[in-house]
Amino acid sequence: MPHVPKVRLLLVPIRRSKLPSFRNPFASAVTQHFQARSICATARLSMPEQLYSKEVESETDPSVSKQYDHDTPKDQQWKELYEMIDGKKISILSTYRGGVGPVGRSMAVAKRAGPDILYLANKHSRKFSDLEKNKEVQITFQDNKTQDWISITGTATTTSNDDPRIKELYSPTISAWFGDLKDGVHDGTWKDPRMTLIEIQSKYIVYWKKETSALGFMKEVGVAALTGGVAQTGVQREFSEEDIKQERV
């Protein structure tokens, strides 16, 4: 066989300063990718221990269980609920109508009495015929800005016009919803026999309160989407019938 001379290659390192200037158009995208990965690695969100499919239920499913607040003291939970109700005033009162189902209408809260809600209303409205057949109602509140919401399930009691609380809760602006029929009786004042009181005694309350800023909200949702975690932008709290009874005491 012919002799093949050995060839040695000398690799000389090139200084960075000698490299031609080159700007990678994808540099920012790559940087953002690694920044996102960094956020994911250091995010406080974490999934629970690995679950098998047969173990995923209401008690263990993180998308359900993670939302409920079991840490905040009950008195603080009540305080924040009352602040939310008092700050909104306008609610949706839903009654149940035979052959139809739930029927809701916007109602101004006349007064919050602890965990219970009072409304002034016209006894000729259809909600009273609904309540004659079914006393169960639902009250909901929602803040369009924060998406905070409240849902109250309760039992309605209606009174006649001689309830002294009607005079206490009445204000002249309420007459605009009744009108003066010019008969000396139906004048839209607190003496108007049409004006009655609906009192809702709560038996179950659940509410959700946002606890992140706009930036925090985006981070929670973004990180959860990238990592497979569950975003937690607020807390959900609930009060049982027993909790409500104790609050009334």
UniProtKB/TrEMBL annotation:
Residue ranges of domain General stress protein FMN-binding split barrel in the record: 77-228
Top-rank lineage group of the source organism: Eukaryota
Coiled-coil ranges from the UniProt annotation: none
Database matches in InterPro entries: Split_barrel_FMN-bd (IPR012349), Stress-Dev_Protein (IPR052917), YdaG_split_barrel_FMN-bd (IPR038725)
PANTHER family: PROTEIN BLI-3 (PTHR34818)
Protein name as catalogued: General stress protein FMN-binding split barrel domain-containing protein
